[in-house]
Design goal:
Length: 244
């Protein structure tokens, strides 16, 4: 290879590298405008969230909406889930309980766990997967690569014995899921100013998690917010959660 050929190759590589860098910059010039979304309401699927709408328990047309931003690797989020489930059982269709992904930086498996839950959601097992991921945190928080995937796959098999395992594993890398996780995170960060998990909002009003010393305290704060919102909407507020 002569000197001219070497120089030509270097020039081509430099131009190609510059094209990649320029393309990256260009794509970042048009980020998602999260301000166009009303975070206090249920968000439908669109091109920005990979076509994956908010995950909701309760009535989608409920006048009271409880939004939780959570990280599946977060121990506080895992501890809060049973009480959130109790609130859902007691308030039923009067309240829409929405769960949004907010993987904290530094939690190495939070995004993978979110992808596993979203993947299970494609087959109708979203809530079951969220709960089993939380309750089996010790099995996956230190894993990586294929070992981590196998743990999530085994958990999926447990909750969905008739589920399509191959589809589940394939969907975990579906680019639409990455869009969904990034979208939820962006809404939380840019619209609701979330900085830590779990974070709760009742009809857009933030629950002051810092006031809760225990999970029962947190449950009561959320329940008080629900009752206040129900009262404002002229709806029945009678529903008391008992601690087992």
């Amino acid at each position: 290879m002569n000197k001219f050929t070497v120089v030509a190759i270097l020039v081509v590589l430099a131009l190609f590298g510059g094209l990649i860098a320029w393309s990256s910059v260009s794509n970042n010039q048009n980020p998602t405008d999260y301000s166009q979304y009303d975070s206090t309401k249920l968000i439908a699927g669109d091109e920005n969230n990979g076509g994956i709408a908010d995950h909701v328990r309760g009535a989608s047309d409920a006048k009271v909406v409880v939004v939780e931003y959570a990280d599946l690797q977060c121990p506080g989020c895992a501890s809060a889930m049973p009480n959130i489930h109790k609130l859902y059982e007691y308030y039923g269709d009067r309240v829409a309980f929405v769960y949004r992904n907010f993987p904290i930086q530094g939690h190495q498996n939070a995004r993978a766990a979110a992808a596993a839950a979203e993947s299970a959601g494609f087959q109708g097992y979203y809530w079951e997967m969220v709960e089993t991921i939380y309750s089996n945190r010790a099995e996956w928080i230190s894993e990586s690569g294929s070992s981590r995937t196998q743990v999530f796959t085994d958990l999926f098999k447990d909750i969905a014995p008739d589920g399509d395992v191959d589809k589940f594993k394939s969907d975990m890398s579906n680019p639409n899921i990455e869009k969904k996780v990034n979208f939820d995170y962006g809404i939380g960060r840019d619209v609701d100013n979330v900085t830590a998990t779990p974070a709760f909002y009742v009809n857009g009003k933030a629950v002051d998690v810092a006031e809760a010393d225990t999970q029962d305290d947190l449950r009561k704060l959320i329940e008080d917010g629900i009752k206040e919102a129900l009262k404002a909407e002229g709806l029945n507020t009678e529903a008391k959660v008992t601690t087992e």
